[in-house]
Amino acid sequence: MDLAALLKSHFLCHLIFCYVFIASGLIINTVQLFTLLLWPVNKQLFRKINCRLSYCISSQLVMLLEWWSGTECVIYTDPGAYPKYGKENAIVVLNHKFEIDFLCGWSLAERFGVLGVSQADTPLSSNTITSPSALGRSALFLIHCEGTRFTEKKHQISMQVAQAKGLPSLKHHLLPRTKGFAVTVRSLRNVVSAVYDCTLNFRNNENPTLLGVLNGKKYHADLYVRRIPLEEVPEEEDKCAAWLHKLYQEKDAFQEEYSRTGTFPETPVVPPRRPWTLINWLFWASLLLYPFFRFVVNMVSSGSSLTLASFVLVFFVASMGVRWMIGVTEIDKGSAYGNMDSKQKRSD
């Protein structure tokens, strides 16, 4: 193991990342509370400021993926559709099989310059966003229609439900939950221009984890993106559900082809990574680490047994907190999908 790899895997580095993330998050959340005063006066300014503040938080995780880990993501897509990415509002339908698939979705949004304004799995009502101008800029709405990450146990349960409903079996996906997708499409019918069907996989059977990213492990992601005009998505809920089931059958075929050939259809392209995620993290690190290290040095140099014991306790609690944060993303710590009763399993 070289020096850089050893440094990246050191727990102290992980603790620093988590400290900066949590401390900056608390500061940003406090500022966001004060921006509520703007809502009755200027909603557009409120949204614009909160988009920037949200970016300051989410971009720190993207920085870990793109700059610390150096994970590469190749997009396979139609060259005619590629120029529209980042320049229009769209719903992103992403498969949910990997611990870091949400990070890859955020990375996609970041590389097209819309990370701050994009949303993930956020419930929408018909009056939340009423027009494209309400967003102020282009946005991506990321949803995981499967509802939970893929595991063999969940897949077995899901296919039992598919069989009971007379739906074709899927090999690489869970049965999509159609009601949430239909509500999202109905709510955003006058806002978005297209659905981006995104199918993610990793080369050489890599099994990426957030802990691996934190340890600086480099992964190689391939993402197949199809742009589907929203006009092709039916408005009626039953027809919309049938359309989504057909979409997932196509996604399953793409995954099967990838497992056989190691590549997706269409033309590969690598969007350049932008420096702003790294600059944002360096700003917060420079702002927060100096007082932190000064506090630690003062505690250690005090010589007080009680102070040192308190420091060790805080360090232990912090380490447990880091493990808990990482554990939240682990696949086997996911939802209780598959443990519900048969009535719930057959509900959509």
From TrEMBL:
Keywords: Acyltransferase, Endoplasmic reticulum, Lipid biosynthesis, Lipid metabolism, Membrane, Phospholipid biosynthesis, Phospholipid metabolism, Transferase, Transmembrane, Transmembrane helix. Pfam families: Acyltransf_C. One of its GO terms (molecular function) is 1-acylglycerol-3-phosphate O-acyltransferase activity. GO terms for biological process: phospholipid biosynthetic process. The chain crosses the membrane at residues 12-39, 281-300, 306-326. It comes from the Eukaryota. GO terms for cellular component: endoplasmic reticulum membrane; mitochondrial outer membrane. The keyword Transmembrane applies. Residues 90-182 form the Phospholipid/glycerol acyltransferase domain. It is an enzyme of class 2 (transferase). It is a multi-pass membrane protein. Its main location: endoplasmic reticulum. It catalyses: (4Z,7Z,10Z,13Z,16Z,19Z)-docosahexaenoyl-CoA + 1-hexadecanoyl-sn-glycero-3-phosphate = 1-hexadecanoyl-2-(4Z,7Z,10Z,13Z,16Z,19Z-docosahexaenoyl)-sn-glycero-3-phosphate + CoA; (4Z,7Z,10Z,13Z,16Z,19Z)-docosahexaenoyl-CoA + 1-(9Z-octadecenoyl)-sn-glycero-3-phosphate = 1-(9Z-octadecenoyl)-2-(4Z,7Z,10Z,13Z,16Z,19Z-docosahexaenoyl)-sn-glycero-3-phosphate + CoA; 1-octadecanoyl-sn-glycero-3-phosphate + (4Z,7Z,10Z,13Z,16Z,19Z)-docosahexaenoyl-CoA = 1-octadecanoyl-2-(4Z,7Z,10Z,13Z,16Z,19Z-docosahexaenoyl)-sn-glycero-3-phosphate + CoA; a 1-acyl-sn-glycero-3-phosphate + an acyl-CoA = a 1,2-diacyl-sn-glycero-3-phosphate + CoA. Pathway: Phospholipid metabolism; CDP-diacylglycerol biosynthesis; CDP-diacylglycerol from sn-glycerol 3-phosphate: step 2/3; Lipid metabolism. It is found in: Endoplasmic reticulum membrane. Converts 1-acyl-sn-glycerol-3-phosphate (lysophosphatidic acid or LPA) into 1,2-diacyl-sn-glycerol-3-phosphate (phosphatidic acid or PA) by incorporating an acyl moiety at the sn-2 position of the glycerol backbone. Exhibits high acyl-CoA specificity for polyunsaturated fatty acyl-CoA, especially docosahexaenoyl-CoA (22:6-CoA, DHA-CoA). This is 1-acyl-sn-glycerol-3-phosphate acyltransferase delta. It comes from Moschus moschiferus (Siberian musk deer).
